[in-house]
Amino acid sequence: MLARPETYRCIECGLPYRASGFWYYHGDLQRGPAYWTDRGILCSPQCSLAHHRKRAAEGTLPQEPAPDPLEVRTVTRR
Fold first, then answer.
1. Beta strand 40-42 with 35-37: parallel, antiparallel or unpaired?
2. b/e per residue, 36-49, with b = 16+ CB within 10 A?
3. pTM of the predicted structure, to 2 decimals
4. Which one of 2, 37, 50, 54 is most buried, counting C-beta atoms within 10 A?
């Protein structure tokens, strides 16, 4: 049987979610990643700072907090 590909990865270094070294909210995998942005998840404080510096240099820092990337959102029909 084939292993399923990891859906979530750090957008800075590519470390897969659930890999050794990934930081979780309050250290609990079930609570999701400790760091994320509107562009995806980040694995550690180091990647979070690197991403912030990159976005600041680009002039693309978000103006409001990003929604939790693992939170299930309901889709409404029009």
1. antiparallel
2. bbeeebbbbeebbe
3. 0.79
4. 37
pLDDT, one tens digit per residue, over 10-28 is: 999 999 999 999 999 999 9
Residue of 15, 58, 18, 10 whose CA lies nearest to 37: 10
**Phi, psi angles (nearest 5°) of residue 69:** -70, -20
CA 16 from centre of chain:
10
Could you tell me if 39 and 3 are in contact, meaning their C-beta atoms sit under 8 angstroms apart?
no
Residue 9 is encoded by which pair of tokens? 């990865």
pLDDT of residue 69: 82
The two three-digit tokens of residue 16, written as one number:
């897969």
Q: Flag whether pLDDT at 75 surpasses 70.
A: no
